[in-house]
Every structure is written in structure tokens, then in C-alpha cells.
Write a structure and sequence with these properties.
With 504 residues, the protein is of the alpha+beta class. It contains 17 helices and 12 strands. The chain is globular. The structure holds protoporphyrin IX containing FE. Residues 109, 124-125, 136, 306-307, 310-311, 314-315, 318, 373-374, 377-378, 439-441, 445, 447-449, 452-453 line the site of protoporphyrin IX containing FE.
């Protein structure tokens, strides 16, 4: 039946059924011819109405289901998270092709309801367009000014390491949970870059802020928050959402207080940190009568929030994995310590030492690879229609690069599922870079704090191994140390205790 005939029939009967049928015919006619012209969409499991492929997914470990599905549907496939179509990118070659060769096309962020309540599309991590560009540029240039990649942050880290050592010393070799001291130390690095000063570990205002932020990272990766992202109307019934909102409101109040304190003592000739720079820019835009300035309080608060959320849990979690792995593999720990003793001896390690510590460097890289703390990046979104490896991915589609499938890609790593520092060493024992080492992702949205994080990991790890020997608690064997991660937005080591025994 032609479109014209349908129209005539509709006009003659005028029934609702006719209208619906006509719409269906038009849809099939136009959607069919369009998709044939434009290319085929990625394959994927058949979705159910409303639920999509939710029943197929392990909501606690969706990345495992995606790896499984990839065996059937290939390196680019689509699933429906509820009614929302999502394209999954699998393996080093595919992820690299999309994020690096089509950086613009895959460079937007999909912002689901769970993240909108946190950022309201301001700041860096969950924003797009001009707002994202300007805040990312401003944060990067200020992070550089206040230390990142420079001597400044090296000094800040070295200062903080002494405090962390003091905390470890307090346990006198007895077993303890490393979570809080490591989180506080790492958070203080961002604090001194953002606010211009560090906090005492006994300051409840600081420790509660860090603990709340960590709780949010954990809860935002839970199965219930995944459901909330798909069906936001579930919100009022979900404890997880209530927890997140409560933590956000409390942390926001604290951050605003800190900003106000800095505002009262602001001196444009003597900037203490990122907040001062932002406030000075804000005042200058206000004085020149700029009405569309992006330098407003909401962007300031959200950017600070992003830097803390993205910069604390990630680095601290990786560091805790590294200590756990050392306790589990004492022969690797001994080799690291032997190298540190030979090359550095008893003096304070500095960034310059990295090139002379290939084994230690390889162990840190291998920790990041195996720990795979962000198995799936926060969702990306296509900024226009894009053809990738023969498939059409339409503008506005949410896209998940599966970083775990890159860091464990069988074609790139000799023993993808085991801890093997040799992945990063050549036959002569020199450090080698690996292209498939992408824990910081790649392309337009690549981690903004990569160089800071790398500096922190190197200095903290080397210093701690220089001073302590890490072992399981008495009565627990190395084999008993469990490497199964606790799932949140990042993959953390499951709760455990370690002994930090002073090296003589
Ligand atoms: C071991 C430590 C870290 C790891 C593994 C890590 C990893 C990542 C990953 C995978 C992303 C998402 C990239 C994407 O969407 O494709 C990201 C984004 C981001 N990271 Fe990191 N990160 C670490 C440390 C840091 C630190 C220390 C900071 C702060 C200075 C930071 C700030 C950010 C920000 C602001 C973004 C959002 C970038 C954007 O959307 O444009 N990260 N990070």
C-alpha cells in the first residue's frame, strides 16, 4: 500500500485505528529506507519492551556480562539499559579507534539522572559543550600552576608522605586497615592544590568530607543506582539515592564554607590555589559586566567536587591494591625493595628516580593494569552520527568503552589475568611502554589528573616500600589474601588488614 493510498483510507474512515496504522506504515517505510542508506547498527541481544536487556545483566558486575556478550556479538555491540540504547566498545583496537581516531565524535558525556543530581551538568566530569571545555581548560592550567607535573606537587606529595608514614608507624607492625590513612593522605594532595593548604588527619571536618565522598563513589556504582539511572522514578524508594543526596548536601555546605573563608582573605597578588584563581576570575568577569560568565559558584563547587571525587578514591584505591599485591607476592616485594635499596638507599625518593627504577615502575604499571579500578569509563555520548568499523552509531547514543577489556586484552598481554610485572619489561630488564595500558582512558575525555596521579603513585609506593615490609596479618597466609574486588564506581580491594613492618 502506498503512502498516498494510506492517507486516502485514513481520510475516508477517520478512525483512531487508521491513524495508528498509518503512523506505523510511515515509520516502517522511512526508518527502513533510512537505515539501509546510512548503514547497519551494531548487533546485540534482543531487548524486552521497557526492560531492554536488563534481565541479561549482572547489575553488580555489568562489565562481566559485557565481556561475555562480546563473545557472541563482537567488539562493537548494543544493549538496551531499559529503553536506552547503549553501545559497548570492546578490546584495545576498538577502544583506541573510537576514542583516539574519532575523538570529537565520541568525546561527549552522557549524563544520566544519577550524575545529574550530583553536578547538574556543571563542572568537568559530567558536563558538555562550552562549559566542559572552559572548566577543563581552566582546571588543567591551574593544576599545572599549582603543582601538577612540576616540582610544586612533588614537594607537596613528599611532605604528605611523612604524615602517612607517621600513621603507619602508630600501628607498630600490627595488622590494620589501610583505607582511611591512605585516603586522607591522597586527598590532602588535591586539598593543597585546590585550597592552598592541607588538613590534619584529626580534623573531623576534613575526615568526614573524605569519608562521605568515598561512600558516594561506592554507592554510585551499586546495582540500585544503576536502576535509578535507568528508571529515575524509582528515586523516592531507594536508600542509595537518599545516601548520595545527603552526602552531597553535607559536603556542599562544607566546601562553600571553605570557599567563603578563602574569599575573606583573598589577595590577587598571592594566589594560594585553584579556588583563589577561580574567585579572581569570577570577580573580574563580574566587574566587566559579563552576563554569560561560566565562572559562577555552581561551576566552582562542581569542579572542586569533581577534582576530589575523581582524584582521591582512584589514586588511593590503586595505592591500596599495590600494598595488597606486595603482601600477596613477597618475592616481587623483595625485588622492588632490592632495587630501591640499590638505587636510592636511605634518601627520600624523587620523581627523577623513576627512570632508574624499571622494576618498581613495572610493578606500579602492572598494579594499575590488573587492579583495573575503572572497568568501564563514565558513559560517553556520540556528538554526531558516526560510522565505526562498518556500524552506524547515531548521534546522542550513549557509549561505554570497556577499559577492562583493554587492560586484559588477550591479544595485548601475555598473561592477562595474572600479576606479571614482566608485561612492562624487556629481556634486558628495561621498562617498556605498552600502548594497551589505558587505565586513564584516552582521547578528549582522558583523565585530567593523569600526570599528578602517576607522580603520587610513584612517590607514595616507593617511599612506603623503602620504609615498610607489607605482610598479611598473623595466621593469614599469602594465598588467603583475596584479590576479588569490592564493586562500586571503582573496583576496590575487598576489606582486609595488612601489617606494615618497619624495615631496619
Ligand atoms: C590512578 C588514578 C586515576 C585513574 C585510574 C583515573 C582514571 C580516569 C578515567 C578512566 C577517567 C574517565 C575518562 C573517560 O571518560 O574516558 C577519568 C576522568 C577524570 N579524571 Fe581521573 N583518574 C585518576 C586520577 C585522577 C586525579 C588525581 C585527578 C585530579 C586531579 C583526576 C581527575 C579527573 C577528571 C576531572 C576527569 C574527568 C575528565 C573529563 O570528563 O573531561 N583523576 N580519570
Amino acid at each position: 500500500m502506498s503512502v498516498f493510498e494510506s492517507l486516502l483510507q485514513f481520510l475516508s474512515t477517520g478512525t483512531l485505528l487508521g491513524a495508528l496504522l498509518l503512523l506505523l506504515v510511515l515509520y516502517l517505510l522511512f526508518s527502513g529506507s533510512k537505515s539501509q542508506k546510512e548503514g547497519k547498527e551494531p548487533p546485540g541481544p534482543k531487548p524486552l519492551p521497557l526492560l531492554g536487556n536488563l534481565l541479561t545483566l549482572d547489575l553488580k558486575r555489568p562489565f562481566d556480562t559485557f565481556c561475555e556478550l562480546s563473545k557472541t556479538y563482537g567488539k562493537i555491540f548494543q544493549v538496551f539499559l531499559g529503553p536506552r540504547k547503549t553501545v559497548i566498545l570492546v578490546g584495545y583496537k576498538t577502544v583506541k579507534e573510537a576514542l583516539m581516531n574519532y575523538a570529537e565524535e565520541f568525546g561527549d558525556r552522557y549524563i544520566g539522572p544519577g550524575f545529574r543530581i550530583i553536578n547538574n551538568e556543571h563542572g568537568i566530569l559530567f558536563s558538555n559543550g562550552e562549559n566542559w571545555k572552559e572548566m577543563r581548560r581552566f582546571a588543567l592550567s591551574n593544576l599545572r600552576d599549582f603543582g601538577m607535573g612540576k616540582r610544586g606537587s612533588e614537594d607537596k606529595i613528599i611532605e604528605e608522605i611523612q604524615y602517612l608514614k607517621g600513621e603507619f608507624d602508630k600501628f607498630k607492625g600490627k595488622a590494620f586497615d589501610t583505607t582511611q590513612p591512605v585516603n586522607y593522605a591522597v586527598s590532602n594532595i588535591i586539598s593543597s592544590i585546590v585550597y592552598g593548604s592541607r588538613f590534619e588527619y584529626t580534623d573531623p571536618r576534613f575526615t568526614e568530607m573524605v569519608d562521605r565522598a568515598n561512600e558516594n563513589v561506592r554507592v554510585s556504582g551499586s546495582a540500585t543506582m544503576m536502576l535509578y539511572n535507568i528508571f529515575p522514578w524509582l528515586g523516592p524508594f531507594l536508600n542509595s539515592k537518599r545516601t548520595i543526596v545527603r552526602n552531597i548536601l553535607k559536603n556542599k555546605a562544607e566546601i562553600m564554607k571553605l570557599i567563603n573563608e578563602l574569599l575573606e582573605t583573598l589577595n590577587p597578588q598571592d594566589r594560594r590555589g585553584f579556588v583563589d584563581s577561580f574567585l579572581i576570575r569570577k570577580q573580574s568577569d563580574e566587574e566587566s559586566g559579563k552576563t554569560d560568565s561560566l565562572y559562577h559558584s555552581m561551576n566552582l563547587y562542581c569542579t572542586i567536587n569533581n577534582l576530589f571525587a575523581a582524584g582521591t578514591d582512584t589514586t588511593a584505591t590503586t595505592l591500596r591494591w599495590s600494598l595488597l599485591l606486595m603482601a600477596k607476592y613477597p618475592e616481587i616485594q623483595a625485588e622492588v625493595q632490592g632495587e630501591i635499596d640499590r638505587v636510592i638507599g636511605g634518601r627520600q625518593p624523587v620523581v627523577e628516580d623513576r627512570k632508574n627504577l624499571p622494576y618498581t615502575d613495572a610493578v606500579i604499571h602492572e598494579t594499575q593494569r590488573l587492579a583495573n579500578i575503572i572497568p568501564i569509563t563514565p558513559p560517553h555520548k556520540t556528538s554526531c552520527d558516526v560510522h565505526l568499523n562498518g556500524y552506524l552509531i547515531k548521534k546522542g547514543t550513549s557509549v561505554l568503552p570497556l577499559l577492562v577489556s583493554v587492560l586484559r586484552d588477550e591479544n595485548e598481554w601475555e598473561t592477562p589475568d595474572s600479576f606479571n610485572p614482566r608485561h612492562f619489561l624487556n629481556k634486558q630488564g628495561q621498562f617498556i611502554k605498552k600502548d594497551a595500558f589505558l587505565p586513564f582512558s584516552a582521547g578528549r575525555r582522558v583523565c585530567l589528573g593523569e600526570s599528578l596521579a602517576r607522580m603520587e603513585l610513584f612517590l607514595f609506593f616507593t617511599f612506603l616500600l623503602q620504609h615498610f615490609h607489607f605482610t598479611p596479618p598473623p595466621g593469614v597466609s599469602e594465598d588467603d589474601l583475596d584479590l576479588t574486588p569490592a564493586v562500586g564506581f571503582t573496583l576496590n580491594p575487598a576489606p582486609h588488614k595488612l601489617c606494615a613492618v618497619k624495615r631496619s
